[in-house]
Amino acid sequence: MGEEAMGRRAVDLSGAEIRGDVEGRNPPIFLPRQPAASPLLALDIGGTLIKLVYTASCEGGGGGGGDGAELRFAKFERRRLQECFDFIRAKGLLGCNGTRSTNENVLLKATGGGAYKFADDFREKVGVCLDKLDEMDSVVSGANFLLQNIPGAAFTHMNGQRNPVDVSPNNLFPYLLVNIGSGVSILKVTGNRKFERVTGTHIGGGTMFGLAKLLTGCKSYDEFLQLSQKGDNFVLDLIVKDICGELVCQKQGLSTSTLASSFGKVITSKKRLTDYKPEDLASTLLSAFTYNIAQIAFLVASLLGLRRVFFGGSYIRGHKSTMENISFAIDFWSQSQMQAVFLRHEGYLGALGALMSYGDLRGENLTLDESKEEEPHHESAAPVDGTPSDEENDNNIFPYLLVNIGSGVSMIEVIGKGKFERIIGSHLGGGTILGLARLLTGCSSYEEFLELSQRGNNLSVDLTVGDIYGEEGYPKIGLPASTTAASFGKVNSSKLSDYKMEDLAAALLNSFTYNIGQIAYFVANLSGLKRIFFRGAYVCGHEKTMDKISRSLKYWSKGEVETTFLCHEGFLGTLGAFWSYENMGIDSLAAHEVIREVLLGAPYTGQFPSLPVTEQQENGENNSLEGEVKSLRHENASLKAEIERLQRENAELRANLGAATL
């Protein structure tokens, strides 16, 4: 087809603006100079949804170009493909572009993995050939279209207030685009035709929806969002006050409502899944995963030195709590140095980008910078745990990242003996894994859960890149078909009994251990650290857990970060290195009170609190003897403290819960 014909079908964006209910969901975009006589259609066929953007005639417009046209939006679940076909026919969109392929079938622009997977269905059932466009190209093109051409397309949502963001096209780049679909892709956009897929996470909208089906029985994502609005996540979530009480919170300057462990209260409760309200379960799921996505976005933006972070994707849907959670988390972790910015029509970025490609005479609408990041997947080779050699001494172990996996996850940068520089944490820890495992499988202990996971196959419920794109995967950005795209993204049934407990356990372990490894890598990378030590009752001594975290760290760091597990005081590494809490500079850290009071989710900087001072020390007597006694006491009691740590936390939680019921 000649360039002249292609040019006639280009989209005229002059004077584009949102019309109708400006506050409504996906209102039409008015194109005053777009000819209405030649409507256009583009599709984005994703992992769970089919999104359509098409032009249609409208009343009033002028501007010298006739009545103009409107961009309109529609979506269908991918499993209801026939409904999409019926809609296209009913709207008269077949043959709308006046473009025909060599075999006389209508040629439509389409993106997303489904454009490859369902190409034959479109051709055979509705006589349409799909002109397949790269998904990342289209998403970025759609975002740039909105930000550069549509007034009011960007806004913030914080503390219940929605405020428009004035984005100057001349000062737009670079920015970070976080696209929340079934999984999450994170892109650094540096220009109109330049971007790089920096990373992604398999914990996305598909994870939320899959688990929501199993836990609440909801049939649609919109139903899940409605449930979450009525629920209380504190019924299932473990917060700081539950662990250490209000007095300690005041002492440490922590908010009593700081989230410590999503689903963490479930591990000490005798309730079963049916004893919880669907609304509370939905609220807990939403907060757990939106906070996690926001934290990863913050870490990536910090690594890249970016302060402008835009969120898009079909799983946001203009939902107030979703946007509120993401905004709060970005503001919290960045100490108000970053803002989460959202986009109108955020679920249609790919389809909008595909539509913009009509009349693009330059071939591909964007250029993808080389980026080989991909998400961890079940077939990646197990890395060898990095351990220091015998020649290491007390001085060159520092600095390092210490990751403590309890009910939640705490990460400390240790810079010297008894000194640390920074703390960050994650609410998705061992308490989350075991809490969800109890609800989904009915297991009574972490050991039973791990045993179940050994016999399961996560691919029975996890959505892979191959499930979306076909057997070739997504080679342009280096994602093989076996890569996990969305944990629990393959869950279609709302009946828990339709799935094997073993498969659900395997998917849980796979999902959260890789997530911990990914966040630990980002934190270490941000601090320039090459050595990570893991400790905690939920990881050490459990070979399967350690193996998956090791795989994740080797994958993300490409083998550049050393991973060691401190199962107890004096852990003997595989290369013969002997580490003690004392020579690692964390002998005080072994004390339960320090773990409880310091290693919580809120950022904190300073020095490890000293141990209680004895009367003899106050008088300046026997300092040397007292120091030796303390050192021996910590060395001998550390293993016991490790074992008792979680038991004490649970006992405190039971006491607090018992007092609350009186």
TrEMBL record:
> Out of the domains of life, which is the source?
Eukaryota
Q: Where is this region: Disordered?
A: 370-390
**What does the record list as coiled-coil region(s)?**
615-656
Gene3D superfamilies named among the record's database cross-references: 3.30.420.40, 6.10.10.60
Keyword Coiled coil (UniProt): yes
Keywords linked to the UniProt accession: Coiled coil
Q: What NCBIfam families is this protein classified in?
A: panK_eukar (TIGR00555)
The protein, known as: Pantothenate kinase 1
Q: Which organism is it from?
A: Urochloa decumbens
